[in-house]
Amino acid sequence: MNTVVLLKRVPDLVEDLEVDSSGTALDSEHLKLTLNEFDDHALEQALLLKEGGGGEVTAVALDSEDVDKMLFTALAKGADRALKITGTGAVNGTSELAEVFAQALGSVNYDLVLTGVQASDDIDGQLAPTVAAKLSVPCIEVITGVEAGDGSVTVHKEYAGGVLAEFEMTLPGVLGIQAAAQSPRYAPVSKVRQIQDSATLDEVAGAGGDNGKFSIVVMTPPETGEGAQMLESVEELIAVLDSKGVI
Amino acid sequence: MSQDVLVVAEHGQGKFDDITFEMLGAGKALAAQTGGACVVALIGGSDLASQLGAADKVVTVDGEGLENFNPESHSAALAAIVESTSPRVVMIGYTSMGMDLASALSVKADMALAASCLEVQAGDTVTAVSQLYGGKLNVKTDLGAGPCVVSMLAGSSPADAGKGDGAPATETVAAPATDGKVRFVRLIEPEAGDVDITAQDILVAIGRGIGTKDDIEVAEELAEELDAAIAASRPIVDSGWLPKNRQVGKSGVKVTPKVYIALGISGAPEHIEGMKGAATIIAINTDKNAPIFNVAHYGMVEDLFDVCEELTEELQDR
Amino acid sequence: MLGPTERIAFLLLVIVCGGLATHGFLRIARIVRLGKAAERTDGLAGRLINALIDVGLQRTIAKARPLVSLAHGFVFFGFSFYILVNVNDLIEAYVDGWTTIGAGTLAGVFNLLSDLFSVLILIGMLSLLVRRFVAKPKTLEFNSNVLLQAKAAGGGVRRDSLIVGVFILIHVGARWLGTAFHLAHNGHGDPWLPTASVVAQGFAGMSPDTLELAMHICWWLAMGLIMVFLPYFPRSKHLHLMIAPLNLALHKSTPHGELDDVIDASAPGAKTLTDLPWPSLLDSYSCIMCNRCQEVCPAHESGTPLSPAALEINKRYWLNANSSSLLAGGESPMLLDFATSSEAVWSCTTCYACVEICPVGNAPMFDLVEMRRSIVFEGNAPDDLAEVLRSLDEKGNSFGQSARRRAKWTRGLDFKIPDARKQPVEYLWFVGDFASYDPQCQEISRTVARILHAAGVDFGILYEGERSAGNDVRRTGEEGLFEALTEQNVETLAACEFERIFTTDPHTFNALKNEYGDGVTVPVEHYTTLLLRLVESEEIQLGDGSRGKATYHDPCFLGRYNGGFDAPRALIEACGTELVEMPRNREQSFCCGAGGGRIWMKDQDGITERPSDNRIREAMSLGAIDYFVVSCPKDLTMYRDAVKSTGNDGKIEVRDIVEFVADAMGLNDEPGDGAEAIPRAGDEAEAGAAPANG
Ligand SMILES: Cc1cc2nc3c(=O)[nH]c(=O)nc-3n(C[C@H](O)[C@H](O)[C@H](O)COP(=O)(O)OP(=O)(O)OC[C@H]3O[C@@H](n4cnc5c(N)ncnc54)[C@H](O)[C@@H]3O)c2cc1C
Ligand code: SF4
Ligand code: SF4
What is the pTM of this model? Predict the structure, then answer.
């Protein structure tokens, strides 16, 4: 089974996110990108599938800051091929990103596409179902377990409260990974450096076309008071619990 | 395109999830802005329609393969409903099921989409506020005149507004055929026995302020009322009062429940590391300067026992 | 003395047993050569001389267990002399009429010494046997979760000890009795042989023939037994008497704090036994299985499955059983299958205590680091560690925080610390992760800054240019990340102008001092050294007044690793604090449990007591102590927590040395208070009471 993993770099939330003067975009000067954590799980799940039943793993990402290191890291972890999509510039939202990925996948031989269940900057929806819809293949989101079958996969989708639903999906198809069967492995820097010297990244020119159907009006930090809002009585506490929908 | 708002109901095991009523409430408010009706899309489980009294209309699709949620057949069914009702705004939960529906619908029906929404407004155009970047930024988007899809965060509006006793008209749309590429196999209930605190929606966490092992009971009673699980800071686990898998923090586990109630926990950085991702943190501590109040959203400077007992009683009475 | 048949028989015995033993020794040499390359033979002559001096003075063994060391001393010095005795006995056997008895003063002195040493050896050996088999000290037992080869677990070490002990008793006892029979045969005692003379009186009634026979039997028991025992030597832990001096001579000669480089970058570290560098293989032959290393190991003490002794013992037992197949080209075994468990590998705090204490110069810790290197390279670092390593790679700090916020702690100061990247400074302060990001430690960092500012020291920091120095990263085995961090730091440092570096953190101190090679060429010192110098040169003026009673915890990477014992103590005392030592101090200081990346990992399941808790109990056992003083940011967090978890909150206060210095300098006095500074602890109470009075 050949698996493609779509990797996306997202703003590192550890940094202070600053909105630029237009008020509609992040200030790129202070922006630091990092691999979407769920995509890291998707990669891990792909590697586990490969280790369990063979096949190739291809990591695909859009050209962006530090993307080479990220792709070499994927190779160091055990991916067989890394594909960098170049020349697209910044893409506007999930929909356009999915379009670019879908086009690039035209040149790749795959059975299964894995990517993270969501990303912190998913303004217009999640990548997995969007790519799937563009490729006209089935998709299931929020996956915590994948088992390879013959021309299909058996997966566990997570609902609230820890209930799982088991599905069987005919391939080719896309899965949005919530968590791999084990935490994403660590690629030692020594190994990444070795791979960097010995392996190469494949490149393909990106083609887009979908500019998204939304526009950003404004980005603002949520209003929060200084520290905790102090409650004076159990009644107030109950009101809070009520508003959070827990009672 | 009509001016209707279509709310996609979510249900499982014979009952609606809260998000359905939350969206129904928000959908009605939105429909008031658009001047259309608030219609509920009910896929499978048409026998539940009677609980949707607050809706103006319920459109159901039912049939074989729709008893249980199935991303493929439910997407197809939703597409059929959308086609027949042609709403201006489709509201879907930003939930496990909703994630399978919203993006697919947006691509297939060529509709704009805003995800992770806290609120939606409609005027000439539809605007939505999405909570993104781990809650660090709210992003307001313009989705154009419509039609469009918004996926709503759980808890973004009160469920009560979506409950009502009306008897809405019901309409049925035929279930479209699918390729059967996704097949539901079974539901797996979480194992009974000890709880995985990382998978809980509500945690009642106790710290050294609890004092003695026997007093943990007080917290347990509260947890029971709240349907919550008990978590703890390290000293509690160290003392052997609770098993290690209940420990939150640097040397324990990281949790991200909807609500985290910290009872008698000072808020050492090692502890905070494990729970700062909780959506709502409520801290109860006798020390008004306890650092836990810096991360908590709500705080109470009170004796935890007083609060626990009173709260448990109040909840029992409800 | 011997008859012709006996002479031939002994010669045959020498040839057969000597041959077997030689074969055994050669095999050991061949096994050791299977290990990976390591540079340990530079200045060989000097190494050997130093080792012989250490052995001769019993230096390495005298570091701990005084009574055992004394008993060992008896046996050791006795046996050293017994070389002469054995030579003499050989001559006596083959040269007719040769005897030292009644042969003048020189022979008399020889006899006196052999007589006394025989008794001392017997006493020493008996005490050691009584200790092991009657007193059965706990230290000779292993935690039940420690991986131990079946034979060793089944009492192999005890049996070996018994065999060796009994051999020594018979060998020396027989020699001693033989002399007594000889005297009885002579018919009179000899003042040069006081104890043998006493015993001889007991044999007075025996016939000359019986006595003659007894002398022969004793000779054979003494000398023949050595030969019979020789082939057993290479298999026994008694081998240490030959290998230990060699092992001590071939010990690592680079600084304690400088780990050896990776040997093969394409497969770093050790996965199998023969992936280890050869000195590690020699270690296993040198090991006397005394468990001293285990006794001082914080990991074993806290109930984890790590025992540095078991690691050496397992290597040895495996080799004893399988050396033939290994030499015949058989597969080298996976270390994690037989030497130690992976959980044990990750329990090591790299505190160096085992290396420091080992009497025969073994370094179990290095094996553990080699194993970590391999485990990490294969992508099997524990999850919690991996997360931190990832953060160190992406953000340059272990806190997962923004690199840009590294100098945020300086915001609480009312002056600006010069940016060493923008202006030349005399002292470059390498602050370190903990001192920069940990909220408790930030307060200490500000205190350091205020002290130096008040003393007019010209210092600066690198602000967000600083990265973790990588000391503990290297000790987790992530060599590539360590290199990456050093490269970044060296690049930043290269663009700055400064004369010296000082650090708050002993870990950072160690890395910069010992592991940055050409990247750091200026002197590196710990802040305690710098502060003491400033006090001594009176650039820092300390006020009078006594500041309670304190005990001081030596951080591993300042003390044991780098010998920084005195400056902190001198500083504490200069601040008017009375210093009381804990039983385990200086070289024997007990690790807090945070080193080697442990602070980034979860507590192991089933630990019995955290090292830091153990240490606080030790401090509390000193009686009334006001302060537990530390000089390492990690320690501050660890011990403040340990004071709480041991239920000693309010009974002892954990303080960094700089807090005393700041107090003694009057930096903490209320502004405008003038000479009559109110003691800090009372501040709040007094302030609270004031309005009510007024
Ligand atoms: C390397 C390392 C790893 C660690 N890992 C973890 C970890 O994973 N998880 C963890 O939790 N800790 C961890 N710690 C320990 C951490 O530093 C703190 O010691 C610990 O979190 C404190 O727990 P606490 O808040 O329950 O206790 P305390 O700090 O003692 O706080 C008790 C609080 O209860 C309040 N209180 C007392 N009585 C009452 C009452 N009647 N009503 C209301 N409030 C009351 C007090 O005001 C106080 O604030 C770690 C420490 C280290 C050094
Ligand atoms: S370095 Fe310290 S923790 Fe590691 S094995 Fe040696 S004594 Fe134990
Ligand atoms: S390694 Fe050294 S200290 Fe440890 S048991 Fe062997 S000889 Fe003793």
Answer: 0.84
